[in-house]
Amino acid sequence: MKDLEINIALDPVTDGASVVHVDEEGESDMGALVIATNGEYRRIDPDETYDILKRMSDTGLADNIGGTAYVAVFNGEKVLKIGEGRYYIGSAVIVKWDKDGPHMLSGKDYELAKKAFLSRLIWLVVNGRKYTAYEM
After folding, report:
1. Is residue 64 one of the residues assigned to a domain?
2. Which distant-in-sequence residues (6+ apart) come within 8 Å of 82 by Cβ?
3. Number of folded domains in the chain?
């Protein structure tokens, strides 16, 4: 469910109304997955998800994870182009995506999205050093 949150602190930069997500029964596990190429991950709530996607609106690059319904969103400025390949080292936010845009994960989506992301990791060797990277 959505609600309206109003913040007035006599600061024109931050004052205003925002639509916020309020958990309903069965919705408490909705959100996204932030996962790194080193295997670390955490769940985030819808508000943090939208905040991250908004902050990445200029630099974000979405990659469909192997034909699944899941999309990993990265900082596109940090994608490495080596030869014919494109690789990413760092963290990404994973959401479901369709023609209407992003949708939150819930229930078993978290584990399925994590497995799909991890299945795309490879060893990238640069100057004799090995890095775990997401292959796009």
Report:
1. yes
2. 124, 126
3. 1
